[in-house]
């Protein structure tokens, strides 16, 4: 759903609620900053200190307040989805609070150059998105600059301004490079790359002092330059290290779906996939096939391939509830032969809701649960509806034999719906050539269009055409024609291997 579409349903009540939550987290942020700045000062001395520096603190507080007002306005106009959930607002401020703690502890006890300056940029990039990461990087650079300049005495003016430009540039480099990071090693590599501008800035700042002392014949400050450059190296690398250490905690705490977590969820060691493989092997194999088809379809229309693959792998986990009642897990005997069509339909359609509940109960990302619930939309269960029609002379309510919905809300949910049905349809008709495969897939898509299954997501006719072509190519490659091998039996003889026709 786009920001424009999401904003249409935005109410004044949501604005009030989100602004109050934002204000509450702002007060917590200010409280943490006050504790860090005044830590260790005696109450009597603190009063005198506040009288002397009160104007500076008041100015800093007002500047920080303005920055947070701007932040709220940014999310209100650019990404209301962040403001729509208290969890999302808490995530934003949790990142800011952690960075504040790290910046004050490291910056005022070690060096301002040793701060993990790209930490916020990397976390926001992975957990939320690139556009918001750029804004958060600017916000954090300005926040720390204001605190350094007006609230801390031991930081010089040159360090304040150099820290600002270092934070901004290093964070931006991390954002532009981090979009393609897929492994922990590549993240460490980003930490090493952003060190380059940091070290150069620190070196150039120290050149005038080095030249002045050289002319005056005083001892060189070269050792001090190396120390400051070492702090810059430490800050760049620690940005990546702390990102890797804290990311899994935030992923779990806020139930975020990231590329790193996707790889864990789709690995062969994932708990639910192992359970599916052991208890419903037919469903597992079907899900792996749908995952390949979903990847090809997502790539064809520019959707996130990793999201599509993960959604496909988990879309049928609800079948773990009654695995033996689904065709792919049955042998020669069909349990539905003993059940009424109504009861059979209830069991079959319940797997969508069961999958949703199963995923939510295990605190997996909401996206996977939503796709599991939506991948059949409100489609009728054709087989049992036809069976019931043969057993009754009266009218049947087709809704009693249909999935309960909702219809797909995203393009990826629509992809899973099409890929899931197409794989089953092509397998059922035994299509092995492109013409029959294309005919089966076209029928699947057209049926769902006639029943308005795509009415609630923003998928287009052009997208559906690209998906159809991608599925034809993928399924033709899987179910391609094979030559019949001649019946020859091989046996070993004294003169070597010999073959005989059977």
Topology, pairings included?
Blueprint: H1 3-8, H2 12-38, H3 43-78, H4 80-83, H5 86-109, H6 119-127, H7 130-151, H8 157-178, H9 184-193, H10 195-216, H11 222-254, H12 259-265, H13 271-279, H14 281-301, H15 305-314, H16 341-361, H17 366-374, H18 382-391, H19 411-429, H20 434-450, H21 461-478, E1 488-493, E2 496-501
Antiparallel strand pairs: 1-2
Span of the ends, CA to CA: 62 Å
Q: Determine the oligomeric state from the structure.
A: single chain
Number of strands: 2
Task: Estimate the global geometry from the Cα principal axes.
Answer: elongated
Helical proportion, percent range: over 70%
Strand content: under 5%
Please compute the radius of gyration using only Cα atoms: 30 Å
Strand order of the largest sheet: 1-2
Q: What CATH architecture of the largest domain do you see?
A: Orthogonal Bundle
- Please count the helical segments: 21
Structural class: mainly alpha
Biggest β-sheet: count, sense, barrel? 2 strands, antiparallel
Instruction: Tell me the count of domains.
Output: 2
Uncertain regions spanning at least 5 consecutive residues:
none
SSE string, helix = H, strand = E? HHHHHHHHHHHHHHHHHHHHHEE
| Average pLDDT figure | 87
CATH topology description of the largest domain: Arp2/3 complex 21 kDa subunit ARPC3
CATH top level of the largest domain is Mainly Alpha
